[in-house]
Design goal:
UbiA_sf; 12 helices; 78% helix; 301 residues; Protoheme IX farnesyltransferase
Length: 301
Amino acid sequence: MPTVNVADHSLSSLILTRIKAYSDLIKLRLSALVTFSAVFGFILGDRGVSFGWAGFLGLALGGFLISGASGAANEIMERDLDKLMKRTQNRPLPLQIISLQEAYWFTSLVALLGIFLLWFFTNPLTTWLGILSMVLYVFAYTPLKRVGPIAVFVGAIPGAMPPLLGWTAATGEITYEALIIFGIQFIWQFPHFWAIAWVSDEDYKRAGFKLLPSGGGQDLNTAIQIMIYTLFLLPLGLLPSYFGLTGLNSGIVATICGVLFLAQTFSLMRDCSRKSALKIMFGSFLYLPIVQIAYLLDKMP
């Protein structure tokens, strides 16, 4: 019979545990979504005769690392609060899979490497915007979560930065087109954040987070505000087509997605239930990538 090397099995298990822990620390899935939005901005902004692969890859990896460092710094600052919430109590720091000192060193290294890649492969404007995004997320949005709903407004700024960084990496400047794709993602943050806050209300209250508007209530006033910001996405979604950044087809897709997204908010206004908020949350996850992919496929030469 074949023998099993217990030491080898334990070592491989330990390595996999550490890899998963560091992946959780940098919020791997969130960082991947952020990177997608940055890549979207780059491809939409690229107008060169030949595609700028060096800038593209530098942006993708550098942006991913800066996003990961921001997420890790957030987990470091909220490590004691994460113990109080069901959705975060299994993160690596509350479970002490990674020591606090390790987390500090790892986060610093990832942040510096991300900044270097942006500086070397893109341009100073993109690098400084990336640093600004990280600073706002870590040192403004994170502490403000326990202050009040202003945190959502502040957090929406770094949350909308990725497509702007992508555009500046490709063009080296902030133009009205860049502000349009920034604006769409900025407004999208509000129904997205508030739906998550509604669904996670009990957990957030344990940690003292105050993200819902209208006094933090799960009521009609909050549902109406979610509806209003979702409504804003309808005209905003048409701006790329109107200004000739993309064609008419993507405008139609953005409008259909916007109407479907908006329809979900009426259900929330009707029953103010967690189930309806959950539908909006999942709807927000679908809306942004579908619309951004439509813009890319319909990009004007």
